[in-house]
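--- STAGE predict ---
source: upstream dedup step, 1 unique chain passed
mode: sequence only
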Amino acid sequence: MRVFRLLGIFFIVARHRLDRLLPADFTVPLWPRMVLALLRLAPRPRASAAISFRKTFEDLGPIFIKFGQILSTRRDLFSEETASELQKLQDRVPPFDFAIARQIVEDALGAPIDEIFAHFDDNPLASASLAQVHAAVLKTGEEVVVKIIRPRIAKRIQKDLKVMYMVADLLERVWIDGRRLHPVEVVEDYERTIMNELNLQLEAANQTQLRTNWLYSGKLYVPKVYWDYTHQNVMVMERIYGITGANIPAMQDSNVNMKKLAHLGVEIFFTQVFDDNFFHADMHPGNVFIDVTDPENPTYIALDCAIIGSLTEEDKTYLARNLVAFFRRDYYEVARLHVESAWVPADTDIREFESVIRSVCEPVFQKPIKEISFGRVLVSLFQTARRFNMEVQPQLVLLQKTLLNIEGMGRQIYPDLDLWETAAPFMERWMSQRVGLQGLFRRLGKSAPRFVESLPELPDAALEALTEIRQLGKNNREQIRILRQLNEQLKSQARERRFTRMGGVALVAALAAAIIPLTGYAATTEIVIGSSVLGSLGVYWMFIRP
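--- STAGE serialize ---
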């Protein structure tokens, strides 16, 4: 089945003639050149290459649509026409029939739509890769939206995941960088992410937590979830109004302060990652709306909370220290931290690594985003990783994806945004709160309630610990005694084997002495006596000695 899927992918690519996207001077080795030749046998579509590129993702299915959504934010990598076409993947995937949507909703909620909703719009507000959304009004009068998972989507995803696993396994086997990049682990992580997206109860829980984190911030609004009408494949939530993050002309017409909006986006991202450790990891423009009620102080609205990321305390600390070192241009510290965190091998030459990192990152500083291609920076960092055997960190993949989305959206909203100027003060403040005196008192304050609560148990715990220590001492003495016995037994067995070998040698010597007369040679008195003694010793050592 996986082979058929691979063939299907090839035929879809051939039908849309994606070779038209390649530059004229593009050169490839022999076997890819043969594949390109096969592609060019297909008739040329009437649609432009950009439209064909977008339709290819739609034809390939939800996993590939997700990939296209990420690419749609990379306007530095594609032409304006191609990026605009890919942007349609955010919420303009062809919808499924309303009769099917109605049946799914009624099966999930256990009642006809007319009994639950005062109004339910037949035409979807948006249609994405895994689900589509309909506007509705509850009997109680609240305006809501109803999110519905596409029918039979799980089986289709499982088929594509099998293909991805096959390709990832092949990469690990035949590609020199395959093991270092952990493609199978990356696919495993992606599988967990996309399967979670199919469970709307998990998304509703994420959305509720994110709403709680930002409810009174005045910076990010998250719609309310109606839990009574939420199930695994149907979710009902508050309807919000705003301008989509991709509609730059509408924001400009509303006189939105674009600089303030861009800076706020960076602040929200870093707060989610480092303060809350609960970050929205699917921040493409289709999932972000802008509230322009107060154009001078615009705020964000977050949708589609299916993919949420978090980091371990160790990874978060190392990442923060790396970022602060980057902002300070302390490339030696960056290199040292990579070694300390085992992101590169322990035998890496830190000074050499420092020099390479400086050559990659120094051009980034003090430049607005419009003058920087982070795509090229990532390529350079990849080459650095390859040179120093840096391994891909699967736990950071979601964060890297979110950073790409944030950068792409920031580029669209305010091209002159200085990412370093915006992020550096935040990271400096976070690190001072984390590792300084203030951070020490803060951690002590957080631990104090637990400490006070456990005070009554301390005497019993101390007595139990003392008893365990004494028992441990007894166990250690007993283990030492047993080890000594074993050592003596081993020595005794070694002596036994040695004596056995000596007895064997003695018997052989005695036998040789006994055979000598049979050869025609005269047996001297010394030979007779010697063979008798050796034979006796051999018999004693091998058969009589206890």
